[in-house]
Specification:
Elements: H1 5-8, H2 13-40, H3 47-54, H4 58-64, H5 68-75, H6 92-107, H7 113-120, H8 125-152, H9 162-178, H10 185-199
């Protein structure tokens, strides 16, 4: 009996090893970059620093990342926990408040300076594309389904554009942190009053 083409395809053990090794090295580089960002901020993040702290050669890092801003956006591309829960079964107002609060906490880390860099270097075409893909669009894609569900079920006004809601959420949280107006839980309540007033069907 002839074997199927698929059954004849076998990955060479060496290829599997190298793929696994690359994954481990990538993880080590990105974890080290996140640690530097969280503890000391974007100014401290250099390829040389990550190489020294991780034990990974600079040449290896440069084969994966062109420069420190490439490395920085890759380091924060992994979504915080607040974006993991789709929010199914949670009333939309509560879900939105949890989202605003979670993003606000994330913005209080030094890693959030990458978002500031996204504004500072917005005229750098290469960095702007990396930033939009890894930081902005990844987060938007994670919360669009729940917002669309809320629109479909009448929890949010159907005449409000979904992209406008995303821009409103991002602008309120990120803007308030960058200009230093964020303070405490009362701030979150006031922001939710603003957001909910703009999108509530009532």
């Amino acid at each position: 009996m002839a074997s199927s083409p698929d059954s004849q395809v076998r990955e060479h053990p060496a290829a599997a090893y190298h793929a696994r090794r690359r994954s481990e090295v990538d993880a080590k580089i990105l974890k080290t970059a996140r640690d530097v960002l969280n503890n000391e901020g974007l100014a401290a993040l250099t390829v040389e620093r990550v190489a020294a702290d991780s034990g990974v050669a600079k040449t290896t890092i440069y084969r994966r990342f062109k420069h420190r801003l490439d490395l920085a956006t890759a380091a924060v591309a992994e979504l915080p926990e607040v974006f993991d829960d789709t929010g199914s079964g949670v009333e939309i107002h509560e879900w939105l408040r949890n989202l605003v609060q979670g993003v606000s906490w994330t913005m209080q880390t030094r890693a959030a300076e990458v978002i500031g860099a996204g504004l500072m270097y917005r005229h750098d075409e290469e960095f702007n594309e990396l930033y939009k893909e890894r930081v902005v669009e990844a987060r938007a894609a994670a919360i669009r389904p729940r917002l669309q569900q809320a629109i479909d079920e009448g929890e949010i006004r159907s005449d409000v554009d979904l992209e406008f809601i995303l821009s409103l959420l991002a602008g309120v949280v990120v803007g308030s942190h960058l200009n230093g107006t964020y303070k405490d839980e009362a701030w979150i309540d006031s922001m939710m009053t603003l957001i909910w007033g703009a999108i509530s069907p009532a």
